[in-house]
């Protein structure tokens, strides 16, 4: 039977370490600050926002939400973003995406200041991710995958990793992060031939496909580590991942549950990025 590796202990350790760091910064008169920009009131944005507020407040960060109307014009949105870019109390900016259609993400991604862009919207941070430059900010969810693997001491160097999904939100970034840790990475997608066979060569599987329980037992090499990023609602209305958890459990060495896996680590990574951004901007690196 595989070990079920949960996100909570990972999130708690990151948060406890950060709380200590933030206390140290506060003694020097600095409070790391996050501004969340939300356009409209989408349910999943609100749910993530609640989690992020709770986590950041627990760690001692200053967080504020800039709520903008759904029908905001591009010009006014950019003015608001430029104002937040200039705000000395804001070290990190999280911008919920996708933005409504009248806002051109292709333009706006160049406006957010890269050093405050804690969730990899700016092309500067995308380039740093691809280059393996650790001064940047990879997106929070793929970073949460890496935090899980680190916490549970999963060896990556030289190992075969297969990532299912190639979005800019999860699949591609996680592939680059695994590559930075010297894994040998295969990225699978909807045009991959012999998908199960391809995946079953991997020592580590990261599933980010957005299809309920698609990764079946025959996708998994015996003893593999399986990280499930998926958040889906199945035909019975239940929350589930991209992996057939029950079917794979006795075949894996480790597997993350959904819910309670990667998703619970994401807001701690967000907070970690805000503290890193604050240190970079204030020059307090120790
Ligand atoms: P996405 O943009 O829809 O990308 C899905 C990827 O899966 C695409 O690359 C697509 O391939 C591939 N795919 C789709 N159907 C496939 C099939 N039948 N066979 C092989 N590949 C297939 O999704 P995403 O934004 O990356 O999100 C992936 C999952 O992660 C979702 O369940 C989402 O809810 C979850 N998620 C979780 C968190 C978290 O905090 N835990 C955060 C973000 C996302 P093509 O490129 O060829 O179309």
Secondary-structure element pattern, one letter each? EHEHEHEHHHEHEHEEEEHEH
CATH architecture of the largest domain: 3-Layer(aba) Sandwich
**Share of helix, binned:** 25-40%
Please give the order of strands in the largest beta sheet: 1-11-8-7-5-6
Outline of this structure?
This protein folds into 2 domains: 28-114, Leucine Dehydrogenase, chain A, domain 1 (Rossmann fold), CATH 3.40.50.10860; 140-263, Rossmann fold (3-Layer(aba) Sandwich), CATH 3.40.50.720. It has 10 helices and 11 strands. The protein has helices spanning 8-27, 43-59, 74-86, 105-108, 123-131, 140-151, 171-180, 195-199, 245-248, 266-282; strands at residues 3-4, 33-39, 62-68, 92-95, 160-164, 184-188, 204-207, 225-228, 232-233, 239-240, 254-255.
Descriptive account of the structure:
This protein is an alpha/beta fold. The chain has helices at residues 8-27, 43-59, 74-86, 105-108, 123-131, 140-151, 171-180, 195-199, 245-248, 266-282; strands at 3-4, 33-39, 62-68, 92-95, 160-164, 184-188, 204-207, 225-228, 232-233, 239-240, 254-255. The chain has 2 domains: 28-114, Rossmann fold (3-Layer(aba) Sandwich), CATH 3.40.50; 140-263, Rossmann fold, CATH 3.40.50.720. Strand 5 (160-164), helix 7 and strand 6 (184-188) form a beta-alpha-beta unit. Helix 6 packs across helix 10. The chain binds NADP nicotinamide-adenine-dinucleotide phosphate. NADP nicotinamide-adenine-dinucleotide phosphate (NAP) is lined by residues 141, 164-167, 169-171, 189-191, 195, 208-211, 229-232, 242, 262-263, 266.
